[in-house]
Design goal:
Number of helices: 1
CATH class: Mainly Beta
Strand content: over 45%
Low-confidence stretches: 3-8
Order of helices and strands: HEEEEEEEEEE
CATH architecture: Beta Barrel
CATH topology: Porin
Helix content: under 10%
Mean pLDDT: 87
Number of strands: 10
Structural class: mainly beta
Largest sheet: 8 strands, antiparallel, barrel
Radius of gyration: 21 Å
Number of domains: 1
């Protein structure tokens, strides 16, 4: 089934090549941006993951800002044990894109810089109102090189490489009878090239 979907998508894209359009890069152009996650099963996802939405807006001819916002909240209540678990996620990233003239009008290469911030938290409360809080924070800065390909009017596919750094930290905080303690404190960082990302942009 996955192979069939892949072949069908490939044939559709090849068939559309003959009517490839220009990439919209004028001031005021805007698009919703989606990401492909896990190309082995062609899983189309929200921007930056399950909880994100993304937009691109051209602030000048050939100059765009791409912004992604992640937000999620989930509550699970266990009536048998009178306990509750609350998950929340927040994130923001922004990328400045400078588009340059490509070899053909249907392809628009670009370079840029970006930054991201993500915060995650899971709070577990038991029947005695004692709480366990697992939290994590991550941020990063990066340079990007990529392209957009207009395979039809108002729709583009794009690929992008990123290179930069990221840093993150996690901890667990326990509050028992008003006594608070913190443990499982971890932190780490990464510097180098990130994996390529694939985007679908729909202009409106």
């Amino acid at each position: 089934m996955k192979l069939f979907i892949f072949i069908a998508l490939a044939m559709m894209l090849v068939g559309m090549t003959a009517q490839a359009a220009e990439v919209p890069t004028s001031a005021g152009d805007k698009a919703m941006v989606f990401m492909f996650q896990g190309l082995d099963d062609l899983h189309l996802d929200g921007y930056g993951g399950d909880y994100g939405v993304g937009v691109r807006y051209y602030i000048a001819d050939g100059t765009a800002v791409r912004v992604g916002v992640q937000f999620a909240g989930e509550t699970y209540t266990d009536d048998d044990y009178d306990s509750e678990e609350v998950f929340s996620a927040y994130g923001l990233d922004a990328v400045y894109e400078s588009h340059i003239e490509g070899a053909c009008s249907s392809v628009s290469p670009y370079w840029g810089v970006g930054a991201s911030l993500t915060m995650l938290s899971t709070v577990y409360t038991d029947s005695e109102d004692d709480t366990w809080t697992d939290s994590g924070t991550g941020f990063g800065g990066f340079a990007v090189v990529g392209f957009e390909w207009a395979f039809t009017n108002c729709m583009t596919l794009g690929g992008e490489y990123q290179a930069g750094f990221s840093s993150w930290s996690t901890e667990t905080e326990v509050d028992v009878d008003g006594d608070t303690s913190t443990f499982n404190e971890y932190s780490g960082s990464f510097m180098g090239f990130g994996a390529a990302s694939v985007y679908l942009s729909v202009y409106f």
